[in-house]
Amino acid sequence: MIAHLKGKVIKKTNKGIILSTGHVGYFVHVSKIVLPIIEHEAELFIHHRIKEDASDLYGFQKYENLEFFTKLLSINGIGPKVALEILSVPSKEIINAIADNDIVTICKIPGIGKKTAQRIILELKDKLVDLDRSHQGINEEAIDALTKLGYQRREISEKLKDLPAEIKSTEAIITHFLKTQ
Questions:
Q1: Radius of gyration of the chain (CA)
Q2: CB of 174 closer than 8 Å to CB of 146
Q3: pTM
Q4: Where do the H-state alpha helices sit in the chain?
Q5: CATH code given to domain 63-130
Q6: Angle, CA 54 vertex, CA 53 and CA 60 arms, to 5°
Q7: pLDDT, tens digit (0-9, with 9 covering 90-100), for 60-111
Q8: How many of the other CB atoms lie within 10 Å of CB of 8?
C-alpha cells in the first residue's frame, strides 16, 4: 500500500494532480480546498483504495485529514468522492456541524441528503474527540456541561477561543463562559 508521496506536481486537473516521484507519475485525487494551494512540489499522506477495476490514490496534506477521510469512508453510503466533497468544507465547520447536530449545514455538501447527514452525525459524533475542533485544549467536561445548559457547541467555541491560559479547571471554564455572556 502507498501511504505517502512526495514529488513534483506535473499537472493539475479539477479532480486532482499528477505527482512525479522520480520516474513515476501518480494521479492523486485531492479535495477542492487543497487543490488551489498545491504548488510545484507536494508532500501528501495517501489513502490507497484498491477495487476490482481500479487502484485510486487520495492525497491529504495533514495526517488528521487522512484520518477523518477514513472515518467518513467507514459510514455506510459514503464513498471516496463524497468524502472528498465533505473535506472540501473547512474541517472546523464540518466538525462543529456534526457536534451540533446541524443537518442543514451537512446537507449543503453535494451528494449528501438528509438521511446521509443523519448517519454522519450518528456515527461520527462520538469519534470527534480525536479530531481538530475549534475548542481544542478546552476541558471536554466543561463543554459537555455547557451544552447541557442549552448552549450550542459553536457558541461555546466562539466564546472560549480567547480563554486565558491560567483558566484550566472545569469550574473555572464554566464560570468564565457564563461571565462573558
A1: 19
A2: yes
A3: 0.69
A4: 63-73, 80-87, 91-99, 103-107, 114-124, 140-148, 153-160, 170-179
A5: 1.10.150.20
A6: 160
A7: 998 888 998 999 999 988 999 999 999 988 877 888 888 888 999 999 999 9
A8: 13
Handedness of CA 135, 83, 57, 22 (dihedral sign): negative
DSSP type of residue 155? H
- Stated length of the chain: 181
| Alpha-carbon gap, residue 74 to 83, rounded angstroms | 10
Fold entry, domain 4-60: OB fold (Dihydrolipoamide Acetyltransferase, E2P) (2.40.50)
Residue 62 contacts residue 72 (beta carbons within 8 Å):
no
Beta pairing class for 55-60 and 24-29: parallel
Cell of 134: 475549534
Q: So where are the chain's domains? A: 4-60, 63-130, 140-179
CA distance 11 to 8: 9
